[in-house]
């Protein structure tokens, strides 16, 4: 169940946990920590976790947020789950490419193609 002060919108679809961010800018350390904890709880609740994180509302992402995404990736992998990212703004995607995180994450242009990739 999402927290009352959640920074996330969470939906379930065909065993896949769809996560969207409430905030356009994911920069604040406290919010990033809270997001990491909430997604961690979702990962722990699913066996195996199938997580899709949509960045459709996000304009800016801090390096701390990228670090949290790596932690999320490792937690999902340790539980034999799948993680997909979708709808990443071209400027943010460029950061993924520069840092080579595009090779770590499976990134999709749309939520629909990401959902299809779970099958």
Structure description:
This protein has 119 residues and is an alpha/beta fold. The chain has one domain (8-116): Transcription Regulator spoIIAA (2-Layer Sandwich). The chain has 4 helices and 7 strands. It has a 5-stranded mixed sheet with strand order 1-2-4-6-7. A two-stranded parallel sheet has the order 3-5. β1 and β2 (16-21) form a beta hairpin. The model has no long low-confidence stretch (mean pLDDT 94).
State the gist of this model.
This protein is an alpha/beta fold. It is built from four helices and seven strands, in the order βββαββαβαβα. The chain has helices at about 30-45, 65-80, 90-100, 110-115; strands at about 10-15, 15-20, 25, 50-55, 60, 80-85, 105-110.
Q: Label the CATH architecture.
A: 2-Layer Sandwich
The largest β sheet comes out as: 5 strands, mixed
Identify low-pLDDT runs: none
CATH topology, by name, is: Transcription Regulator spoIIAA
Q: Tell me, what's the shape? A: globular
> Strand-and-helix sequence, N→C?
EEEHEEHEHEH
Number of domains: 1
User: Helix proportion of residues, in percent?
Assistant: 40-55%
What is the number of helices?
A: 4
Strand order, main sheet: write it out: 1-2-4-6-7
Q: Give the mean pLDDT.
A: 94
CATH homologous superfamily annotation? STAS domain
Structural class: alpha/beta
The CATH class turns out to be Alpha Beta
Radius of gyration, taken over Cα atoms and rounded to an integer in Å: 13 Å
- Give the end-to-end Cα distance, rounded to a whole number of Å: 25 Å
Count all strands and give the number: 7
């Amino acid at each position: 169940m999402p927290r009352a002060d959640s920074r996330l919108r969470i939906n379930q679809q065909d065993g896949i946990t769809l996560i969207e961010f409430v905030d356009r800018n994911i920069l604040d350390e406290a919010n990033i920590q809270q997001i990491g904890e909430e997604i961690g709880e979702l990962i722990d609740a699913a066996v195996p976790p199938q997580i899709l994180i949509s960045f459709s509302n996000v304009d800016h992402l801090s390096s701390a947020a990228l670090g949290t995404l790596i932690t999320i990736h490792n937690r999902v992998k340790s539980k034999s789950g799948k993680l997909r990212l979708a709808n990443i703004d071209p400027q943010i995607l460029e950061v993924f490419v520069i840092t080579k995180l595009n090779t770590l994450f499976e990134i999709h242009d749309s939520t629909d193609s990401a959902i299809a990739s779970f099958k």
